Amino acid sequence: MKKFERTLPALAMIGLALASAPAPAVAQQMGALQMQRQAGGLDLPEVTVLGTVDPNVRKATAIVNGDIITDTDVDHRLSLVVIANGGRVPPEEMDMLRLQVLRNLIDEMLQIQAARENEVTIPEAEIEQAFARVAQNFQQSPEQFAQFLANGGSSPATIKQQIRGELAWTRLLRRRVEPFINVGDDEVQSIIRKLEESKGQEEYRVGEIFLSAPPELQAQALSDAARIVEQVRAGASFVAYARQFSEASTAAVGGDLGWVRAGQLSAALQPIVTSLPRGAVSDPVAVPGGVAIIALIDKRQVLAADPSNAILSLKQLTIPLKAGISEAEARRLAAGIQERTRNMGGCGRADEVAREIGAEVVNNDQLRLGDLPGPLQQILGNMQVGMATPPFGSPQDGLRVLVLCGRDDPSASAGLPSFDQVYSQLNDQRVNSAARRYLRDLRRDAVIDYR
To answer: For the chain, which terminal residue's Cβ has fewer other Cβ atoms within 10 angstroms, N or C?
Structure first.
């Protein structure tokens, strides 16, 4: 029996609806495409050179302290963003996205230059290794991944430059910023005491996108944020948009704030987070300094057992679909499979039913509930042993049904985070804040010519 597929196909709709699955996990593997639209009062000029582009001419779009960013650089990075969103970027969004990409490339160039001035170098062999790891995340060889990028209008060079910038900036911060960050033992102990006092309260895993804007530009920022929300709700990746557009320090990790309690958020965001269902994205919210978009990734009780840590034993039935099948045919087939698997008698008869309906069976006895896509977590979290999910999938991946064979629930009590864990979180927060100020200083001192 071959290994159970941990990464299930994207779910267009649980049950009978079938649609082409978006590019699986592309947005989460594209690295830190960190973007700063405005900082410390700095409002980048509207760039007028991004008009008609001749793909055969490598002309300079911007010269940053003497280093050139060409139209080709912008095109390749723009295509990378489009790939990251499964190709679902509306034409009317492309101009705004192109400007954001150029600004991102300028920031990246400033970071690389600052690292170079401080004699921070990244060996090419290390960049190649990182590129190979990204390719492996796509289950491709570096050569296959390079071709995949080229087919999408991008290039391996743009990802390698992105890797170089991220590694150089991280090491520069380690040398120039981290040694001057202080976290006191009393601060750590105070947080641990507060966690003990708040045991049993709700906490939320939150994603954020923050667009800074002075009061006179807040209406435009709200409009920009509304377009992002529209795209995410239509199926685009929140993580990809956070990496491209967010100006919060969490941009590099796709906007993931981690686990927080409502009281740790601003007054404007507290009622929104507590009312959002899992997996939902908020409308744009005006907050001090700009506009925020909030996504609720998950929620749990402080220091209580986390249901998402339940370990499941599953059987997966996969039924291939013929090429060119219509949605109506797929729905009829899914309805028949659901009727056949609904009361089949659990895992004991799964292999027999699979043979009858022409399905392949794959087993996994150590799958964490939280590692499944959100819709499946909700379904399997409420299922009893022996029950089966409705069919789900896509025309490319076929139909799939999961049968729950067993569940080991997490312990009823969970321990406090360790001193080192709390210390590390505080230290990271302060390093990120200092890094943001450092980048603002680099922008302020930069000589940038637009051509």
So the answer is: N
For 197-210, the pLDDT digits (tens) are: 777 778 889 999 99
Q: Is 181 exposed, middle or buried (0-12, 13-18, 19+ CB in 10 A)?
A: middle
Residues 263 and 323 in one domain: no
Contact between 116 and 165 (Cβ < 8 Å): no
- Cα–Cα distances in angstroms (integers) from residue 398 to residues 20, 45, 212, 303, in the given order: 10, 49, 43, 40
Instruction: Tell me how far apart the alpha carbons of residues 431 and 404 are, in angstroms, rounded to a whole number.
Output: 44
3-state helix, strand, coil in the chain (%, to 5): 50, 20, 35
98 with 210, same domain: the answer is no
- Domain enclosing residue 100, as ranges: 31-178+444-450
Q: Are residues 288 and 391 in the same domain?
A: no
Distance CA 70, CA 259 (A): 40
71 and 133 assigned to the same domain: yes
Q: How confident is the model at residue 27 (pLDDT cuts 50, 70, 90)?
A: very low
Q: With 0.85 as the threshold, say if the pTM is over it.
A: no
Q: What are the phi and psi torsion angles at 292 (to 5°)?
A: -120, 150
Structurally, the chain folds into a number of domains equal to: 3
User: Are the CB atoms for 373 and 22 separated by under 8 Å?
Assistant: no
The single-letter DSSP state of residue 284 is P
Whether 284 and 377 map to the same domain: the answer is no
Q: Which of 376, 340, 373 is nearest to 355 (CA)?
A: 340
CB-hemisphere CA count at 13 Å for 372? 26
> Are 63 and 162 in the same domain?
yes
Q: Which two tokens stand for residue 82?
A: 């489009």
Clarify whether residues 285 and 311 are in a common domain.
Answer: no
As a whole number of Å, the end-to-end CA separation of the chain is: 60
274-to-167, 196, 205 alpha-carbon distances in Å: 36, 21, 11
Residue 145 lies in a domain: yes
**What value, to the nearest 5°, has the Cα angle with vertex 65 and ends 62 and 69?**
30
- Distance (Å) of CA 303 to CA 264, 411, 420: 17, 11, 17
Give the closest residue to 101 by CA, choosing from 178, 171, 47, 147: 47
Residue 363's CATH number: 3.10.50.40
Alpha-carbon gap, residue 192 to 198, rounded angstroms? 10
Question: 220: how many CB neighbours lie within 10 A of its CB?
Answer: 12
Domain assignment of residue 58, yes or no: yes
Question: For the segment 107-134, what is each residue's pLDDT rounded down to a tens digit?
Answer: 999 999 999 999 999 999 999 999 999 8
